[in-house]
Amino acid sequence: TTNGAAKHAQVSNGTTNGVSEVVSLPASRPMSPVQQLNVMKAWEDLEASFLGEPSERDLERYHYYITKGVRHDMLAPAPDDQMPNIKNRIPEPLRTNPDLHKTIASLTEEAEGDYNFTLRKCIVDYVLKDEKEKSRLHIMWIPRPFPHRVIRAPVPWHATYKETKDFNEQHLFTTNPIMLHLQNLWFDKYAHLRFVNKDELLRSNLPLLPADFEELIKKQCREAHEVLRTSWIPTCASVFLTHKDLWGHLVPLNDTDSTQRVQEFFSCVAALMSNHLRSMVINSLADFLDFMQMHKAGNDFGTDYDELQFAMGSVMIIKLRVEEPKIIFEPPFRETRDIFLRCFSEIVASAEELPRVESDLFPDMRHERLLLRTVKMEEPLVTEFMDKAMETFKINTVGPQRYLNVYKKYADLLNNKAEQEVTAFLKEKHSLLAFTKKINSYQQLKDEIALLRITVPLSMFTLACEDLNIDLCSRAQRLKDRLVIFEVDENRVLNKEICKHYDEIADRVSEMPDSTADLVELTDFLRTSSEVTVFKLKDEIDEAGNRLQFLLDYATLPYEDIKLNSQVFHWPDHIQTVFDLSKNRLANRREAAEDEVKKKLQAFEDKLTRYNQEVESFRKKEIMSLDEMKTNVDKLNELSQQLEDAMGEQASINKEEELLEWEATAFPILQMMVTYKEPYDKLWGTALNFHTKNEQWLNGPFGDLNAEELEEEIGNMWRTMYKLTKQFSDVPGPRRIAESVKSKIDKFKQHMPILQTICNPGIRDRHWEQMSDIVGFDLKPEPETSLFQMLEYGLNKFIDKLEEIGAAASKEYSLEKAMEKMKTEWTDMEFNFIPYRETGTNILSSVDDIQMLLDDQIVKTQTMRGSPFIKPFDKEIKEWEAKLQLTQEILDEWLKVQATWLYLEPIFSSPDIMAQMPEEGRRFSTVDKTWRELMKLALVDKHVLVVTDIDKMLEKLQKSNELLELILKGLNEYLEKKRLYFPRFFFLSNDEMLEILSETKDPTRVQPHLKKCFEGIANLEFTDILDITHMKSSEGEIIELTEPISTSKARGQVEKWLLELEGIMKLSVHKVIEKALHAYKDTPREDWVLKWPGQTVLAVTCYYWTSLVHTAIRGGAQAMADYLEQNNQQINRIVELVRGKLSKGNRITLGALVVLDVHARDVLQTLVQTGVSKENDFDWLSQLRYYWEEEKMVTRMINSTLAYAYEYLGNSGRLVITPLTDRCYRTLFSALHLHLGGAPEGPAGTGKTETTKDLAKAVAKQCVVFNCSDGLDYLALGKFFKGLLCTGAWACFDEFNRIDLEVLSVVAQQILTIQRGINSGTDMLTFEGTELKLDPTCSVFITMNP
After folding, report:
1. Distances from the Cα of 393 to the Cα of 283, 305, 318, 481, 879, angstroms
2. What residues form DSSP beta bridges with 328?
3. Alpha helices, DSSP H only, in 78-194?
4. Among 266, 696, 711, 1292, which is least packed, fewest CB within 10 Å?
5. Minimal CA–CA distance to 757: which of 712, 799, 791?
6. What is residue 17's predicted lDDT score, i.e. its pLDDT?
7. Smallest Cα–Cα separation from 1256: which of 1296, 1302, 1205?
8. Torsion over CA of 216, 219, 221 and 223, rounded to 10 degrees?
């Protein structure tokens, strides 16, 4: 035989690839099925090595040719008897059953379709066997069919059968009568046993604490185990001893005989007993599961808890306790779940360690540890029991979680908010009435908590709330105590302040003044205290009385405070006594002070008379000797000091007179002496000065003289003496001295022209040589040459030529000095470096001074180079100019690198960004390394000229700038890719985007940026595995997502899960609206509005209003009037709700709802008044109407329709709708219907933008407001438009007329491109060189201020 392994190796991939079509195997011996399969598998592997996998394009084309490439008339029809034969295989009752006729017809159609498809596939497969056809049709490979494997049974089989039969007769012991005895024993005495006794559990003192419940289960398991070990096993052994004749012949007679059969016999016994044990375990598991499933209905009690719902006894007690800032279950449900799972494990484990019956029958075998087999934990059976139990457990965790909502109103006590509120309250100034209200509110809160349930039965669990309630009460009490203690402390502080103030007044008025000023000051203080201050303090004492009255109601005051209060109230009487004593004492002190001032006046007048006589003595002095001049100067200096002291003394006396309220004494002689003395100071001072200096100038080394300084000094002396000769015209002695000194100065001034030439600091050796050539002999002086010697040379006759050389020397000197000054200015000029964050490097700071100096010196240097006198320093000035230019270039490149490095450093410090942009990351690392090296070198010596001398600094900075430009280009391309994947990124700046994209490891850190992408989403709720389950608005509203979003699947790519969030957000809003639509009919409206999200409430309310108005119009005028009345009642009920106690979110929702309800009522009233009777009347059609069609919400206005966009916008308010708002809506709606934008016009602040945004809220559209400015370019707007046309959002460009005209023309073209794309109905649009997916619902609105 060829055996079933002979296989047709027909290659199913359209080609043989060199393998023959049919392979015949030689005849061989019979093979087992495994051998046959191995042969077939080897051939399949051989074929697979020649074949490839089809690409997506191959599959697409292959499927196309099967479905579209074969005409129907090319297919052979099915045989006529094929379908009758198939139907005949169906049993007659089914075939004739009328209920199944549709099913039979459907299946017939399916069978015919399968036949049709198979024929087509066969034709295509046959065609594709030809390589040319494959090439023509561009199909490389097609799918491989499932391998067809057929095996044959091994032959011959009779011998095997006979062997098996004989073996069973020798070794099969299940028919031994002893097995029946064991079976009967089990079912008669032990089959009822359970490891967990359900009835006993129910009779026990349930509910128990989780640990106690686990111990109870363990105890039952131990008892059952003991029964099996001490009763069942020995009883089974006794059966063997009783019926030894049934098995004794199997035991070998001597040691040499085989023990195989007896071992097999006892193995069979063990298997039977193991089955008994397994059945007990399984029954125990089932009973325990039944015990748990008594609570399978769960404990979800809805909104309001009713104890009568849960009459059945609970199993476990779960305690509630505080773990700030939340309430937790103790033990947590995770531990409770583990306890239940351990109970199942305990049942399974209790059946282990039971010995087989041989251990009792044969004592020698006890050490061999022969045990009965039982159920294992890993068996699917056990897993199934545990899974079902966990389902019941999970259902029973809902109620406790929901009951925590009862404590939500006390959340502020747990999350520190109440503590912060009290802290904030105490920081502000409040009246006692406010404190009373606050304290009473916490007392009421404590009383309310004290009345809450202590135990809460919830089916499987009972919540023990006593400890939690006590904790919350104590927290409320602590807050109340804190307020009371604060007021006690404040009262103590204020009372001490009052007493301190009184003490200070008493101490101050009791002082004895040392001076007249102190006396007057103390008198004024006494008057103010007695006439003003004590009355203010009296008001404070009255306030202290009010505080004391308040504290007696709420606090128990300690003895110290009682004593302090007593002191406060006694002070007003005591202070009057102190005032009377002080007034008498101060009156006596004033009389003594007046006598003292009179004595001072007399003594001062005598002193002034003496000074005047000394001043007069200078009129007669006219001797001009050196000693006389020195004596007179010293005397005048001494007199100046005395007069200055006298002026101070006069001011002191006048001050005392003023304090005593006397008229101030003038002392005119004092000022007269000062004026009279001044000319004498100048006369003798100048005379002495000229006498001394003249000697130094003529006989000292003339090289030390500075001509300019000397000329100025001589000029000043001459002018002084000239004035004094006029001033002393009537005083002969001083006049003669002045004229004498003036004539000496005139004589010295004749030498000034020569002095200015030879004493010029700019004179160098080259100038001396030029002057020597002119005079005909060597003029160059020695270091000790004096001016007198130089004057002796008679240089006056060459003065004109010498002056020219001197002038040139001066100019060259000024240029030299200017250059030295420029260099000196850089000596202390340093770069200022500051550490940059935690980077370990520094950045350049405050370069304004350096830049200003550079600019100034570059201009100066260029000016100096143009001077005709620069020639001696030409080389030096060129080198200096080059140095400045290099410094400027380095500074420019440095600042450019720094600006870009500062922008990129935070970006590339994120490992996530580095991983996503490896090439740019490597480039940045190069720049960063260069930057840090340069900074390190610069910090060694910060002087500007030292830093700019660093080797190849300019080249390094230029190279860094080139790399940074490449990095910025790569970064922009990377961000563009991300924006194209998640278009809402187009509305974000690069910095905001990078902050989001850098958070790849921890998606929760993206949350602060969510509002930039999704207007309504402020936060997301994450599970432990970082799946997103809920979205939360900034108002605290939470919406569950239709399906969780796995952020881990995005593998760190934030944009992926953000895109998924966008889609699921809209699906979730749609689902919530759909649910609310159905719930509206079954729930009272005032309850319904509080149960659903704000956006949902508004949309569904508008839908039902539209629907009911349609019904009312069809019902006639009376129906319209009735519905108007119903509208008014609805508004009244909502107003009542608003006046009550509401959460913040509900209050916002109801605020928006009242706005819409009032507008709806006004519209309805207008319709009633105008007598609208048809559904197509314009008055009705012109209103914004909501419809639910094909499971979707749509809005209509006149003949325009807009689909509701389901964008989650949070729980926000709505604008009051005026007739002008309605007109604006109608215009914008019509524009949107025609795929155009809108341009509301009007003065600033009239609501153009807000109206556009409110219309977007009405249809749940994302509306992005963009404030235009004159600095805006077409590229920024182009980026914005890309986001717009991809996301389908609306944009409102505020103050559009501020954009520059050149930009405006491009923007107009961009908007026109988008509108043409929408009108053409295309899915893709090429915009600004990028092919984008077009969402036709996008639109552009503009507003302009006149």
Report:
1. 20, 20, 13, 43, 90
2. 321
3. 82-88, 92-96, 101-127, 131-136, 158-171, 177-185
4. 696
5. 799
6. 37
7. 1205
8. -140
Q: 833 forms bridges with which residues in the sheet?
A: 844
Residue with token string 């004290």: 450
Coil, strand or helix: which one is 642?
helix
Distance of CA 62 to the CA centre of its chain: 52
Q: Is residue 1196 helix, strand or coil?
A: strand
| DSSP symbol at 204 | S
3-state secondary structure 310-365: CCCCCCEEEEEEEECCEEEEECCHHHHHHHHHHHHHHHHHHCCCCECCHHHHCHHH
Of 789, 768, 785, 786, nearest in space to 777 by CA:
768
Sign, CA torsion 548/551/552/558? negative
The Cα–Cα gap between 1268 and 1343 comes to: 10
The full length of the chain comes to 1346
Phi, psi of 1326 (to 5 degrees): -85, 115
pLDDT bracket for residue 793 (50, 70, 90)? low
Task: List residues bridging with 835 in a β-sheet.
Answer: 842
Q: At what angle do helices 1301-1320 and 1274-1287 cross, to 10 degrees?
A: 20
Paired tokens of 897: 């690198």
**Cα-based angle 569, 575, 579 (whole degrees, multiple of 5):** 165
SS3 content of the chain, % helix, strand, coil (to 5): 70, 5, 25
| 364-367, long-range: CB < 8 A, 24+ apart | none
Q: Are 499 and 549 spatial neighbours (Cβ–Cβ below 8 Å)?
A: no
Phi-psi region of 1245 (alpha: psi -120 to 50; beta: other; left: phi over 0): left
Start-to-end C-alpha separation, the chain: 102
Picking from 922, 1048, 1043, 1063, the residue whose alpha carbon sits closest to that of residue 983 is 1063
CA distance 997 to 1057: 12
**What pLDDT is recorded for position 221?**
93
Give the 3-state DSSP-derived string for 978-1001, with helices as H, strands as E and coil as C.
HHHHCHHHHHCCHHHHHHHHCCCC
Q: What tokens appear for 1322 in the block? A: 């295309």
| pLDDT-based confidence at residue 11 (cuts at 50, 70, 90) | very low
Give ∠ CA 1185-1286-1211 in degrees, rounded to 5: 45
| DSSP 8-class letter at 128 | T
Q: Which amino acid is at 586?
A: L
Beta bridge partners of 1186: 1195
Q: Measure the CA–CA gap between 366 and 700, rounded to whole angstroms.
A: 133
Residue 948: other Cβ atoms inside 10 A: 20
> What are the structure tokens assigned to 1286, written together?
């991809």
Q: Specify the 3-state DSSP secondary structure of 1301.
A: helix
Neighbours of 158 (CB within 10 A): 8
Give start and end residues of each alpha helix (H) in 1174-1273.
1178-1181, 1219-1233, 1248-1258
Task: State whether residue 834 is helix, strand or coil.
Answer: strand
1065 contacts 1014 by C-beta, under 8 angstroms? yes
Q: Quote the percentage of the chain above a pLDDT of 90.
A: 9
For residue 326, give the amino acid letter: K
* DSSP code for 842: E
How high is the pLDDT of residue 1187? 93
Report the distance separating Cα 567 and Cα 570, nearest Å.
5
Helix (H, G, I), strand (E, B) or coil at 212: helix
Residue 648 backbone phi and psi in degrees, to 5: -65, -40
pLDDT at 1321: 85
Q: What is the mean pLDDT of the chain?
A: 82
3-state DSSP assignment of residue 232: helix
DSSP secondary structure, 550-562, as one string: HHHHH----HHHH
pLDDT given at position 131: 84
Compute the distance between CA of residue 450 and CA of residue 472 in angstroms, rounded to an integer: 9
Omega before 668 within 30 of 0, i.e. cis: no
